[in-house]
């Protein structure tokens, strides 16, 4: 099941050229672009791991693409997303985030029904991949 | 579809004059001539590079692609010969011609590239490189990156990362190394990789006396000062004397001298409070402001 999170996720995967243009848009707005990766793509998992530090003071997307290439080399079997942080007063939050890399196979989520008092049911979504330990979830080493 | 196909056809004829005017490069070169005194070989080389880039641009339009030319440069010359100033100009020329996308100059020295401990250098160097992407990375006193006496020095790591990016991301970044002539030669001698990756080695000559005078008048003009006739004559003597003394660093020494003269002029004006000053009084430096310099009393001067 293809995961749809953040911007552009219902579109076909962005090419590097398209990514570069989006990053340039972020930089032109003065946002700092970050690279994050994870192998636990649950929609409620806000805490992806960062690849290096947030990249402040960049002028050109080539710098971000350079880091992205490095990150793909190491974590090419995981989800990688770019997020753009707006530090201006009043915003101070992420303005844009989109997935730039995903595993070849995405097993998706299962829905668990938890039967509680009476005939009530509580629902939980669980990623199949997360059943395996971290680092081995998407066929990684 | 028909329209886009028409656009995609390579141009067969190009009006060179119009192309030249369009990129506004004539303006930049004229400004270079006007604001930079002397430096004949430097200007010639910049003109050559600019022409090449212009032709390359046209060739691209005619579908005669030959790959971007290597634009990494090294500036060698004595202190105060205008290496940094020219680097800033180069960036704007390259930007006008579309060979760097943003045209910013990131100016660094060893401190900003080389780390303090193991594992610190690579992220530091990469961060600077990322900031310089799309523009010009200017490394002043580049020979400090290499410390031949210490083989475990982290400078070597920074050099390796630089070389790699200079090669693989030539279209994203232009690197300019600068430093004093003899030490740069030694630096290139011990890092042959650098020498071969740099296409343009530009040597900045020392200024002649009359060029230094012209520079000083240009600087004064920018600061809204001027020499009186006597002061100019005195300053000509000052330049001749100062050049023979140690630690002379061309235009930088001139700027320092001018700053000290402004101090003396201010002091002279304040010494006599009971008078009405005209704009002319405030603007002009007198001979006494020049002659009070230690250079004339065979002191070491600064």
Automatic annotation (TrEMBL), chain A:
Keywords noted in UniProt: Calvin cycle, Carbon dioxide fixation
InterPro entries according to UniProt: RuBisCO_ssu (IPR024681), RuBisCO_ssu_dom (IPR000894), RuBisCO_ssu_sf (IPR036385)
Other facts: The basic functional RuBisCO is composed of a large chain homodimer in a 'head-to-tail' conformation. In form I RuBisCO this homodimer is arranged in a barrel-like tetramer with the small subunits forming a tetrameric 'cap' on each end of the 'barrel'.
Protein family: Belongs to the RuBisCO small chain family.
Subunit field text: Heterohexadecamer of 8 large and 8 small subunits.
HAMAP family: RuBisCO_S_bact
Span of domain Ribulose bisphosphate carboxylase small subunit: 4-103
Keyword Nucleotide-binding part of the UniProt annotation: no
Protein name per UniProt: Ribulose bisphosphate carboxylase small subunit
Organism this protein belongs to: Tardiphaga robiniae
UniProt entry tagged with the keyword Nuclease: no
Taxonomy of the source species: Bacteria, Pseudomonadati, Pseudomonadota, Alphaproteobacteria, Hyphomicrobiales
PANTHER family on file: RIBULOSE BISPHOSPHATE CARBOXYLASE SMALL CHAIN 1, CHLOROPLASTIC, RIBULOSE BISPHOSPHATE CARBOXYLASE SMALL SUBUNIT
CDD domains: RuBisCO_small
SMART domains from the UniProt entry: RuBisCO_small
GO function terms (MF aspect): ribulose-bisphosphate carboxylase activity
GO biological process, one term: reductive pentose-phosphate cycle
Task performed by this protein: RuBisCO catalyzes two reactions: the carboxylation of D-ribulose 1,5-bisphosphate, the primary event in carbon dioxide fixation, as well as the oxidative fragmentation of the pentose substrate. Both reactions occur simultaneously and in competition at the same active site. Although the small subunit is not catalytic it is essential for maximal activity.
One Pfam family it belongs to: RuBisCO_small
């Amino acid at each position: 099941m293809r995961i749809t999170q953040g911007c552009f996720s219902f579109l076909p995967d962005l090419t590097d050229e398209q990514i570069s243009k989006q990053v340039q848009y972020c930089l032109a707005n003065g946002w700092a672009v970050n690279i994050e990766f994870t192998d636990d793509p649950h929609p409620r998992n806000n805490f992806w791991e960062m690849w290096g530090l947030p990249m402040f003071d960049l002028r050109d997307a080539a710098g971000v693409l350079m880091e992205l290439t490095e990150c793909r080399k190491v974590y090419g079997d995981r989800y990688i997303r770019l997020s753009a942080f707006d530090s201006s007063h009043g915003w101070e939050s992420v303005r844009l985030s989109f997935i730039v890399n995903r595993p070849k196979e995405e097993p998706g989520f299962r829905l668990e029904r938890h039967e509680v008092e009476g005939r009530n049911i509580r629902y939980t979504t669980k990623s199949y991949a997360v059943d395996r330990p971290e680092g081995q979830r998407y066929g990684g080493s | 579809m028909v329209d886009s196909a028409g656009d995609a056809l390579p141009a067969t004829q190009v009006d060179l004059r119009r192309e030249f005017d369009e990129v506004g490069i004539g303006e930049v070169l004229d400004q270079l001539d006007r604001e930079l005194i002397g430096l004949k070989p430097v200007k010639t080389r910049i003109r050559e590079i600019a022409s090449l880039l212009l032709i390359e641009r046209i060739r691209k339009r005619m579908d005669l692609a030959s790959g971007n030319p290597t634009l990494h440069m090294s500036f060698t010359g004595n202190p105060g010969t205008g290496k940094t100033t020219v680097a800033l100009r180069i960036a704007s020329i390259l930007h006008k011609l579309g060979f760097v996308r943003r045209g910013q100059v990131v100016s660094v020295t060893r401190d900003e590239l080389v780390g303090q401990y193991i594992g610190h250098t690579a992220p530091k160097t990469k961060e600077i490189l990322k900031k310089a992407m799309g523009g010009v990375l200017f490394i002043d006193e580049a020979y400090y990156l290499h410390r031949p006496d210490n083989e475990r020095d982290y400078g070597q790591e920074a050099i390796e990362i630089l070389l790699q990016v200079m090669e693989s991301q030539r279209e994203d970044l232009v690197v300019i190394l600068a430093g004093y002539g003899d030490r740069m030669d030694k630096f290139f001698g011990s890092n042959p990789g650098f020498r071969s990756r740099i296409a343009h080695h530009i040597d900045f000559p020392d200024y002649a006396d009359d060029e230094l005078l012209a520079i000083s008048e240009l600087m004064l003009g920018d600061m809204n000062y001027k020499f009186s006739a006597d002061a100019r004559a005195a300053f000509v003597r000052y330049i001749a004397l100062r050049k023979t003394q140690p630690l002379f660093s061309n235009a930088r020494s001139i700027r320092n001298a001018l700053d000290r003269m402004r101090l003396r002029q201010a002091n002279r004006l304040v010494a006599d409070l009971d008078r009405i000053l005209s704009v002319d009084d405030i603007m002009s430096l007198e001979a006494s402001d020049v002659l009070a310099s230690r250079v004339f009393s065979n002191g070491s001067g600064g």
